[in-house]
Structures are given as C-alpha cells and as structure tokens.
From TrEMBL:
Keywords: Glycosyltransferase, Pyridine nucleotide biosynthesis, Transferase. Belongs to the NadC/ModD family. Residues 102-270 form the Quinolinate phosphoribosyl transferase C-terminal domain. It comes from Sulfurovum indicum. GO terms for biological process: NAD+ biosynthetic process; quinolinate catabolic process. It comes from the Bacteria. This is nicotinate-nucleotide diphosphorylase (carboxylating). It is an enzyme of class 2 (transferase). Involved in the catabolism of quinolinic acid (QA).
C-alpha cells in the first residue's frame, strides 16, 4: 500500500463521517508538540510527512527516523488549523507509536549481535495490510527486510516440500520459470535435509528451529562444501539467545518477534 493510501485509510478509520468537535469549535492557528514519555528509537517520520502535506500542516522535526530519544524529548512541533490538528491527533500519534515501538525492539536485537557481522531479518508475520509500514519500522531500527511477499523470493517451507516428489528435478524447473534475479531459499530442520537442499542448488538455506549444536554442524558443512550458499537461522530467537546463535557463523537470523512482540512506547501531544 502506498504511503498516501495508507495515511488516508488511517485518518478515515478515526474521523469516520466527521469529527463532532469540529461542528461546535472555531478554527484558529495553533502549535502543538509530540513529547516522549519513555525512551526509544524513532520511526514514522516518512508517513507523518505525507499526512502533513495532505492536510496543510507545518512540521518542525527534532528527531530523525532511526534516532534514539529519551523520555521528555519533544520530538515534533506541528502548526496548523486547530480543527484539522485535533482531528488528526490520534492518527499522528498512532503512526509514530506503532512504528517507533517496532524500531525500538528491533534496535535492541541488532545491538545484541553487534560486532558479529550477522544480519537481523524480519519475517512475513506482519499485521494484515500493514506489511510495508511495519517493515519500514524494522529498517528504522537497524534491521533488514526479508522478503516482502511471495513474489520476490521463492521459499520452500516444510509444507511446500511435502508436495514435491523430486527436489532435484523441481529445482531444475524452477530456474527456468522464476525471474533470473530471484533467489531460492529452502527451510531445513536437519543436517540431512540441509545436504539435500544444498546439493539441489538452494541459494539460501534456513536452519529452522535447530539447536545451537546442529546449526554449528550446518555451518561447518556449508563452509567446507558450499561456501557460496547463505545460511539463515530462525525459530526460538529471543534477546537472550540471539547472540549465541549469531556466534555459530550463520549469515543472518530472522525473527517475527521484532514486530509482533513490540510493546508500545508512551508518547503524547500537547497544545502550546
């Protein structure tokens, strides 16, 4: 969904047939600010900029996407018509809250594996119709997007593999039918499956829910036999376990938690 379409939908959901306050209030120019009431990493600026342009609001930013902030920090000053600004208050805050909360948790995961050279990836475990927005927030937190959808990388999960009789034959046909630039990733739960996937020509192999010892075995096998193949670890990834996983030598670690386990920060808007 394009940013403009997303912002329109966000506002329409809240305003509905019209803000009742605007029926009885008089327009005046006001200035408001958004203040942080907890620490975090900021995200949402790209979307609020679009909203401001659509509704003729003037913004003065005190923070950039991806920048850390402390409780008490005034993040943004907004000037505009009082009726418009008050109607958009919750939409503005929700955009910033949602995005910044994901960016904040993502940053904590990235920080935990700093220095290992391993990339933190998100997943497709996003809220319906919010994928582009939530993955944007991950980037603001220092994470890297995994595939956006089914059309930019072919991943063969255990459910797919159950429908494939001969993996080698399937992979040879795949290369003739998917775009030249598209990668093929195969999900594996055992070293034996890893060997099959690498022999069949996978570009990326996912170590799914493997133990640290099993992942280390896979890394050693890859390094010796197929050094060009990328390794991704996934499953049971937490802030307590991610560094140990990274130290096995995989190239990337994916986690849906950075999106669906993000707790909302505390922000508010005040009129000067």
């Amino acid at each position: 969904m394009l940013k403009e379409e997303f912002v329109k939908a966000v506002v329409a959901e809240d305003v509905g047939r019209g803000d009742l306050f605007t029926r009885i209030s008089k327009s005046r120019e006001v200035r408001a600010y958004v203040v942080a009431k907890s620490d975090g990493v900021f995200a949402g600026r790209e979307y609020v900029d679009v909203l401001a342009k659509m509704y003729d609001l003037s913004l003065i930013w005190e923070v950039k996407d991806g920048e850390s902030f402390k409780s008490g920090k005034k993040l943004l000053f907004i000037t505009g018509d009082s009726k418009i600004l008050l109607s958009l208050e919750r939409s503005i805050l929700d955009i910033i809250l949602h995005a910044s909360s994901i960016a904040t948790l993502t940053f904590r995961y990235v920080e935990a594996i700093e220095g290992t050279g391993v990339k933190l990836l998100d997943t497709r475990k996003t809220r319906p119709l919010l994928r582009a927005f939530e993955k944007y927030a991950v980037r603001c937190g220092g994470g890297i997007n995994h595939r956006m959808g089914l059309d930019d990388c072919l991943m063969l999960k255990d459910t797919h593999l159950k429908t494939i009789d001969d993996l080698d034959t399937f992979m040879s046909e795949v290369r003739q039918k998917i775009p030249f630039t598209s990668k093929v990733e195969i999900e594996c739960e055992t070293l034996e499956m890893v060997k099959r996937a690498m022999k069949a020509g996978a570009d990326i192999v996912m170590c799914d829910n493997m133990s640290i010892e099993e992942i280390a075995e896979v890394v050693e096998f890859r390094n010796t036999n197929y050094p060009h193949i990328l390794l991704e670890a996934s499953g049971n990834v937490t802030l307590d376990t991610i560094k140990v996983i990274a130290q096995t030598g995989v190239d990337a670690i994916s986690s849906g938690s950075i999106i669906h386990q993000a707790n909302w920060l505390d922000l508010s808007m005040k009129i000067e």
